[in-house]
What we know:
By secondary structure, the chain is of the alpha+beta class. It has helices spanning 17-32, 47-57, 77-98, 101-107, 118-121, 146-163, 178-182, 214-217, and strands spanning 69-74, 124-131, 133-136, 139-142, 167-168, 189-198. A four-stranded antiparallel beta sheet has the order 1-2-6-5. Strands 3-4 form a two-stranded antiparallel sheet. The two termini are 27 Å apart. The model has no long low-confidence stretch (mean pLDDT 96). Bound molecules: 3-iodo-tyrosine. 3-iodo-tyrosine (IYR) binds at residues 91, 94, 107, 112, 171-174.
Amino acid sequence: MAHSENFVSYTAQRLTADESAQRSADFRKYMDKRRSIRFFSDQPVPEEVIENLIMTASTAPSGAHKQPWTFCAVSNPEIKAAIRTAAEEEEYKSYNGRMSEEWIEDLKPFGTDWNKEFLTVSPWLIIIFKKAFDYDGEARKKNYYVNESVGIAAGMLISAIHNAGLVTLTHTPSPMNFLQKILERPDNERPFLLLPVGYPTDDAVVPVLERKSANEVITYYK
Length: 222
Ligand code: IYR
């Protein structure tokens, strides 16, 4: 492949096939323990930890390496309270008329409702913004595959949170443009996902669920 001077050699870790098998199985088992949690303790999490999690997410691949994301890390109680009030206002309307019967029915096993206590209890809220475009002074610079890029970064953030022994929930209040206002984000940034981050309460529960099996999610072409 043609390449410019601006390349360095990639020194990958060289694992044996056995090591790869072992490590992939271990990681699969570890990731299978991750659950979305709705019961957060107010136990603090140091900023250093949050920064490590976000900077892990920011290693995600992105279109033309534009890294089209901003992560807002909120521990300020007044801002968390403002976010909760606005989110609950939207959620209340969603649960009481905006969502279809089928949707409400699909959510029953999870016991969700408009009350979002975790937004003020969890020590941190991470709000991911996608950057539709970048500003270079007044000029607009294009970003590419923004949803794909930010979605991948979100997945990596969720994995990093799990790896740190912390829990989260992918919360998508809808509509969520209030986040742009409360956090005073510029007009090239759009809210993408809101993740409370913290430790679970000692009596946290999760719904019983099964994950799809390999033959349900994989089609091999050998
Ligand atoms: N945004 C709402 C509703 C909701 C929708 C789905 I799809 C879920 O998997 C969970 C909840 C809420 O946060 O309650």
